[in-house]
Amino acid sequence: MTRRLFVLGLDSLPPYVLYEGHDGGGLRFIRGLVEESARYVLRTCHPPITVPAWMVMFTGRSPGELGLYGFRHRRPGSFESYVVTSQDVREPAIWDDLGRKGLRFGLFGVPPTYPPKPINGFMVTDFNTPGPQRPYTWPPWLREELASAVGDPIFDVVFRTEDRDRARRDLLEMVENHGRVVRYLAERKAWDAFIYVEIGIDRAHHAFWKYFDERHPRHTYHEVYSRAIPEVYRKVDSWLEEMMRGPLKGSIVVIASDHGTKSMHGAGIL
Length: 270
Prior knowledge:
Layout: E1 5-10, H1 15-19, H2 28-35, H3 50-59, H4 63-66, E2 72-74, E3 81-83, H5 94-99, E4 105-108, E5 121-124, E6 137-138, H6 142-149, H7 164-188, E7 193-198, H8 200-212, H9 228-245, E8 252-256
Parallel strand pairs: 1-7, 1-8, 4-5, 4-7
Antiparallel strand pairs: 2-3, 5-6
C-alpha cells in the first residue's frame, strides 16, 4: 500500500533553532523526530522571503523563471504596485503535475494560492485571502462545509503593532484555528499528499523576535513576550504529535521551512 505524504511548512523557521535546540523548549516533539530522521540544510532562493520561496519549492522553478520577486510587484510603466496572487503563478506546481496523474492533494495556507484554482483534491488558500467573505476553497462548496463544521479559517493577524498582548492572543488563536481546520480536512477528505504551511511561525518571529533572540542588538527580556514564540512553537508541536498518533499515523511526514529569521544589525535602502 502506498504511504501518504504530509508536508508541514513552518514559515521562516531557521534551521539552527530546530537543530541546535534554540526553540525555548517549544519544539520538543519535532526535535525528537529530527534526531531519528534524515535532515538537510538547503539554500533558499533569492529573495529569501515567503513569496516566492514556497512556490520555488513546489514548482522547482527559480524566482526568475516564475517572475516572482516578492509580495508586491510594480505595474508595468507605473510606480503603482499590486499584491501577488495565484494568478501570477504561471508554472505548474507539484499538485498540478501529479494531480494530472491521479494523485489527490490537500493544500492549506500555501502562498500564494488565493484566489483558489482547480486542483485534483481540495484547497484552503493562504494569508493573502481578504477574508472568509471571499471564495477561499476548492472546491467552492467546501467553504460552507468548513464554516458549518469547524468555523472559518483565520487567514492572518495584525502583527506589526505595539499592542503585543493582542498580537500574542491572536497568534495563538490563529494557530489553534489552523490546526482544527487541517485536522478536519485530513480526517474527512481523501488525499495522497497534504501540504500545510503555518504562517503563524513567521508572524510570531516578526512580533517577538527581539524578546526571544538573546543575540538581538535590542534584546529585552519580558516575562510574557519572551515566551510568546515558544508558545506558538508548542501549539504546532503538540498538534503534530497528536496528528501523528491519529490521522497521520503511517504517513511520511516532511517538515520544511522556506527561509530563516535573524536580527537586523543594520540596513540600507537603494
